[in-house]
Amino acid sequence: MSDTKAAYQRAKNAAARQARAAAGEKRRYAATAAIAEDCEWLLDTGCGWGEILARLGYRHRESLERQLYRAGRDDLAARLLALGTPKRMEVAA
Fold first, then answer.
1. Is residue 92 a part of any domain in this protein?
2. Under 8 Å CB-to-CB from 52, ≥6 apart: which residues?
């Protein structure tokens, strides 16, 4: 393979990797935004820790809090913390 063809192939592969990475980032952002939206709705309806975690599919409250911080929803994380620490969470598997 000539140097020109090899350089072209490397550039083509790099562009494909960048496109796949961008698509993955969009999917992750959409999923995080959906979790934040669902969490907000559950808080507005008066759900407690156990129900929020079960409905969103989390086993640990710290995981949900971390996800909300990553989504830029510090306000929701603060509202969750205001609910207090649950004594015991029974999450159905």
1. no
2. 39, 42, 43, 64, 80
